[in-house]
Structure formats: structure tokens, C-alpha cells
Amino acid sequence: MFSGHFLIPIFKMKEKINDVIVGFGQKIEGIGISCPGPLDLINGIILETPNLPGWNYFHLTEALQQITGIKVQLQNDANLAGLAEAVIGAGAGKSHVQFLTISTGVGAGLCIDGKIYQGAKGFAQEVANCILWEDGPSHGALKNGSIESIASGTAITTRAQNVGLEVAHAGEVYKLEKEGNELAKQIMEDAYEYLSNFIAILYGVLDPDLFVLSGSVALKIPGFIEEIEKRAKEKVFDALKDNVKIVPAALGEDCGLIGAACLAFEG
């Protein structure tokens, strides 16, 4: 059941969802939901999500199924973006596709034969808090030196602002780097180096057919993916260099929604 803390969001959600369902004018077969994590995917619960205040520990699938009478499946947003890219996007036709989004945060999803790999309890690929740098930068509630604290767009921007650079997003840090600013150069160097380290580690553990990179940092900073691939190749066994393939996502900003639809039809 749901506490009074959730009555208002549930009421508002019911109105909006019912309006959407009626607006389709046809039978809805299933509902797939893309949400940032961490999530309890086994039980359909939002555990913690900084961008949705008041929704922590919310039993989302149970609430929606009661409201709509339709089967609901909840999944991590990066997992669903990865599913879409694996099934109909840049990874179509490949059996093992590792997806990474480098944007506001760092998210990931692994798909094997067109299915999301969730792990034993549904927390597989929660990579944001993976520690790579001892006593490294901090970022929100994440541990110091985590990959998201180094390579995400938010982290790049914050680190630049903390050393006095007037920037609004990671693209401006990149621009300062290209103009010869040494502080910006070091911040971008950290992002390139630690992200390529991380991808090389993932390759050694998972041996995917390819990596698909998405997100504003990966897709909008010129040459970002090429630089990461070049460095990652140098961090694996020489005999395996040619196996490290990193490509841009093909489906754009709607890949999470497309993945949610794929999930709904799976169920």
C-alpha cells in the first residue's frame, strides 16, 4: 500500500495517465517506464532518484497497475536506451552490446541477444559510482573519484567552475581546451583518460561486440568518441585492440522511450 506522502503524486499521475490512454483511442497492450536509478527492478520500486523529489521508495509499477489495469514494467533509463540501440539502433544484429550514456550523469546498460542483463537483484550496470581515482573529485552523493564525478557533463562543468572558469556546460570547457586553456585541458584530459580506462575494464570483463555511446558529452563534443576509442584500444591486450569498437548511438534522444516500448512488448 501507499503512504499519504504519495497520495498527491498518485492522484496527479492517475489523471495524466488516464488522459494519455484515452487520447490514444485504442487498446493499450502494456506500459514500459524509463526512469533514472537506482531502482528495485525486481519489485518495480524507485529507490532513489535525485531528479524526482518525493518519489524515493515509491512502488511505481504496483501503483500504475492499480490505476490502469494494464501490466507495467519499470526499467532503468540507460538500460532501456541500451535495449533500443541493441535491437534497432547502432547495435542491431550484434549479440553483446554495451551501452553508455555520457551526459548529465554516466549510465550504462548491457544487452545480450536483445535482452537486458539485470544481474542477480536488478542492479547490474549501475556504474556511476564505480571508483577509479583515489581521493578524486566529488559529485553529489557519489563517492569521491567515481566515473560520474570525472567524466559526466555535470562533473566536467563543475570542476571547471571550481577553478574559476566561466562555463555553462562541458562543450564550453572543450572549447577552452582547444583555445589553449591549461585548466580546461587538464579537466578534459581527466575525462578522456578515466573514461577510456573504464571502457577498457568493461571490455576485459564483458567482451562486447561493440560499445554504443550516447549523451550530450559523447555526441556533441567533436571527436570525443574517436578519442575514447583510440585510448581504450591502447589499454587492452595488443592482440585484442581491433576488437574494441566504439560507435555513436543512432536513435537520438528518444532511445529511452523506444526502449520502453520494446520492454512493454516483451512482456
UniProtKB/TrEMBL annotation:
<dbReference type="Pfam" id="PF00480">
    <property type="entry name" value="ROK"/>
</dbReference>
<comment type="similarity">
    <text>Belongs to the ROK (NagC/XylR) family.</text>
</comment>
<dbReference type="InterPro" id="IPR043129">
    <property type="entry name" value="ATPase_NBD"/>
</dbReference>
<protein>
    <submittedName>
        <fullName>ROK family protein</fullName>
    </submittedName>
</protein>
<dbReference type="InterPro" id="IPR000600">
    <property type="entry name" value="ROK"/>
</dbReference>
